[in-house]
Amino acid sequence: MTGITLLLLALQTFGGAPAMPKTAKYLHQKRLSSQDTSAVVGLLGGCPALLSLKCRANGDEWVASPVHIPLISSAEVNGASMPLQWRFSGVETERKGGTRVVFLFSSENPRLELRSVWTTRPGPGPLTHWIEVSNHSDREVILPLQESLVCSVTPPTLPSSLQAWWVERGGGTPTDIGVHQEDLNVGKQITLT
Fold this sequence. Notes:
Layout lengths: L1 H8 L3 E2 L11 E8 L3 E8 L2 E9 L11 E2 L5 E4 L2 E4 L2 E9 L4 E9 L4 E9 L7 E8 L5 E2 L7 E2 L11 E5 L11 E5 L10
């Protein structure tokens, strides 16, 4: 039960995202693991992707197909919408105090850098993901909201009881709850923010 509970902490957002075809080619695959969770991330269609999310206790796969994370497609510059064209510029991996994988992307006009950051820590705990964007131009750039991760998870086998545990990580008005615990039933959908 612990592995299943902690796997759900890994998700920033829970809902339905378009799945990429299994025939697509995955580049720069990297494995991250905690005591509970094992994941493979990589590039799919030029964007970061969650390729696998498993419970280490029993090996169950929680994502039926790779989860593509589209990058921000436009920005506002000088009051006008401008399309962004991201180019993959590298991947960094650090294995000190856990694992940190960073996929780097750049945009020439405006000059932006986007980092897709994936981390795990030793011991029990989740996979986490967030997006960082740096403006290296001399202009003010306004970006729309970039979702960190949107996917559907499906436990391969349902135990008699299943709970989602999650912690709010900012992005709005937090509640006084702290750690959320919700019972999951067949068909239940939760949006984690």
